[in-house]
Specification:
6 helices; single chain; alpha+beta; Glutaredoxin
Length: 128
């Protein structure tokens, strides 16, 4: 028997029509807002108030001279359902969610690493 340390997520394509419709309607306005910003803007940071990693990601981008659009959805005690809809849409479980040229690169740690190795700027300039 082969085991994997990373479990697969096979259900995303095995929903009943009712479940698929419920997911699609779940805070669709928020998902639409984020999706449209990601499609339109070169760099988008999706976050929440009071989260230190959101602040660190924004500061790292600003310090690197990279402009970005910031979308904020509540804080730890508010708007958690809206943030859940974003997590369901992106598949990323944390905030911030940093998108570059329409691609989710991750959160703060991944953003910091991509800035350090030059891959974020390369993606932004279309070299990736």
């Amino acid at each position: 028997m082969t085991t994997s340390s990373t479990p697969e997520r096979p259900l995303h394509d095995r929903y009943t029509p009712h479940v698929a419709e419920t997911i699609a309607r779940f805070h669709a306005d928020v998902v639409r807002e984020v999706s449209e910003a990601v499609a339109r803007e070169p760099v988008v940071v999706v976050g929440m108030a009071q989260n230190p990693f959101v602040k660190k990601a924004r500061k790292a981008l600003a310090d690197a001279g990279i402009s970005f659009r910031y979308l904020e959805y509540g804080s730890y005690m508010s708007q958690w359902r809206r943030r859940l809809a974003i997590k369901m849409w992106s598949g990323w479980p944390l905030f911030p969610q940093v998108f570059v040229q329409g691609t989710l690169i991750g959160g703060f740690d991944e953003t910091r690493a991509a800035l350090a190795d030059g891959s974020l700027r390369a993606r932004l300039e279309g070299e990736d």
